[in-house]
């Protein structure tokens, strides 16, 4: 049976254990870093649960009605018309020879956004070199001067665009003939997508 003395002793052991554990955590930078990561992950889990599935994507949706799906190829000059400043506000970005409709990411690429310089342009070279300086060249950029690591980086970025945004068509090289797509078909025929 526990006497008042043993209860008191237990409480003292418990509090000194707790104090020791806290000292261990707060006096070691490594443990503090791990603690911050754990708190951040818990915050993310709780936030996602509260907002429900798809809530984050919904937050990315523009308030205005969704634009009809677009399917066509572009020269660099034609692409320039879709920087979000035109009446329908559609924003297109070229990556690795392919064009993506990034309108739902307007807060990034739309006018005034942090990556607005990618809008209506081929962003491949920017993504490879981590630059947001506008690439105003009117000619198709074959990226042939870039190294293997830079090309890998472009492909990694493209994977992200492919996952998040709609594929629209190809970026046309000088003199390349555009593909005629069946715009009535909902078929996800990406056979023409450039894989370079
Ligand atoms: C100080 C430098 C930078 C900071 C702090 C930063 C921060 C961020 C953050 C927080 C996001 C995620 C936004 C979200 O998902 O809510 C993001 C996305 C992105 N960043 Fe940066 N960034 C920086 C520089 C750059 C540079 C130099 C580039 C150019 C290659 C770049 C390209 C992108 C792109 C393409 C996205 C994806 C947007 C999307 O989801 O469509 N960032 N950045």
From TrEMBL:
Where is the stretch described as Disordered?
177-196
Q: Which InterPro entries match?
A: Cyt_B5-like_heme/steroid-bd (IPR001199), Cyt_B5-like_heme/steroid_sf (IPR036400), MAPR/NEUFC/NENF-like (IPR050577)
What are the entry keywords?
Membrane, Transmembrane, Transmembrane helix
Give a GO cellular-component term: membrane
Instruction: State if ATP-binding is listed as a keyword.
Output: no
Q: Which residues form the Cytochrome b5 heme-binding domain?
A: 74-172
Q: Which residues cross the membrane?
A: 25-46
Q: Which domain of life is it from?
A: Eukaryota
| Listed SMART domains | Cyt-b5
Q: What family does the Swiss-Prot or TrEMBL record give for this protein?
A: Belongs to the cytochrome b5 family. MAPR subfamily.
State the protein's name. Answer: GH10626
Q: Which gene encodes it?
A: Dgri\GH10626
